[in-house]
């Protein structure tokens, strides 16, 4: 696996990318290969979500804003992001790094009464 120069301080590290890459959907589109790597585009998506800027303001080192938004939207419509998060949670739970806590208060508890 070739290493990509990390553009920003909050971009994915090589170790994080190595864990994430196998979970990504495979591209089925024939034709010209993408000008930008999946890692660049995902870092662009992460940058945009972290900063909260408009898509058009995504820095050019992540790819064109249209490519970054296009990947985000395609995967959102296909349910890929939810599948990735679920897979990461399963991996983290298996490694013991997630502490699942459930809090219940009276506003979320339904009472059932039996009538005579």
From TrEMBL:
Protein's recorded name: Insertion element IS402-like domain-containing protein
Native source organism of the sequence: Nocardia callitridis
Domain Insertion element IS402-like: 12-84
Stored Pfam families: DUF4096 (PF13340)
InterPro entries the UniProt entry points to: IS402-like_dom (IPR025161), Transposase_6_like (IPR052909)
Transmembrane segments: none
Organism superkingdom: Bacteria
């Amino acid at each position: 696996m070739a290493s990509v120069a990390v553009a920003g301080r909050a971009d994915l590290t090589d170790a994080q990318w190595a864990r994430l890459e196998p979970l990504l959907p495979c591209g089925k589109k024939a034709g010209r290969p993408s000008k930008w790597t999946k890692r660049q585009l995902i870092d662009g998506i992460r940058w945009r979500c972290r900063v909260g800027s408009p898509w058009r303001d995504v820095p050019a080192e992540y790819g064109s804003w249209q490519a970054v938004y296009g990947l985000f939207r395609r995967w959102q419509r296909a349910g890929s992001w939810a599948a990735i998060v679920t897979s990461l949670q399963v991996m983290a739970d298996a490694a013991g790094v997630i502490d699942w806590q459930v809090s219940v208060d009276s506003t979320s508890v339904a009472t059932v009464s039996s009538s005579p």
